[in-house]
Amino acid sequence: MSDKCAACNREDIVTANERATQLCASCANALGVIPMPPPRKQFAPCRCCNGASFIRAMPREVAPMLDGGPQVTSPMAVTFGAQESGWLGMQITSDTRRTFGLLEMYVCRRCGYVEWYCSDPQNIPVGPQFMTDLVEQADGGPYR
Questions:
Q1: CA dihedral in degrees (81, 8, 107, 135; nearest 10)?
Q2: How do strand 60-63 and strand 77-85 relate by DSSP bridges?
Q3: Across the strands, what pairs with 14?
Q4: pLDDT tens-digit series, residues 76-130
Q5: Is the pTM of this model over 0.70?
């Protein structure tokens, strides 16, 4: 006997992705849950209180559909790819499943300090269509 989905408690958990999220594919899609990638942070005590217990989270965002359709829930990322939708692909929308730079946070359980990290930063596309700029510091100093 297999485990049931933690959200709907109806569907069996069968695939590797379902086991990683403890959700059936339908619930994972509706809730914007994906398997957790490997951690980005090397363990170190909290820089504010020296605490040693953290909650690692992949924050999600929830956006209502403009046409009154169901809400869209997706992992937070630096930017998203585009997709064609609508009749004959005449409408372009953000593809919430094509993320660039998934965000990950660590919350200190003692003081609440939060550290943010980004996965795969070297592959984040740069350009106005992605609402990203490349900002680089020229060699030299002084740095403060």
A1: 0
A2: unpaired
A3: none
A4: 999 988 877 766 667 777 777 788 999 999 999 999 999 999 999 999 999 998 8
A5: yes
Residue spans per domain, the chain:
1-35, 40-124
8 A C-beta contact, residue 106 and residue 47: no
Confidence bin at 143 (pLDDT 50/70/90): low
Q: Which two tokens stand for residue 115?
A: 């550290």
Rounded-to-5 percentages of helix, strand, coil across the chain: 15, 35, 50
User: Over 51-112, what HEC string results?
Assistant: CCCEEEECCEEEECCCCCCCCEEEECEEEEEEEEECHHHCEEEEEEEEEEEEEEEEEECCCC
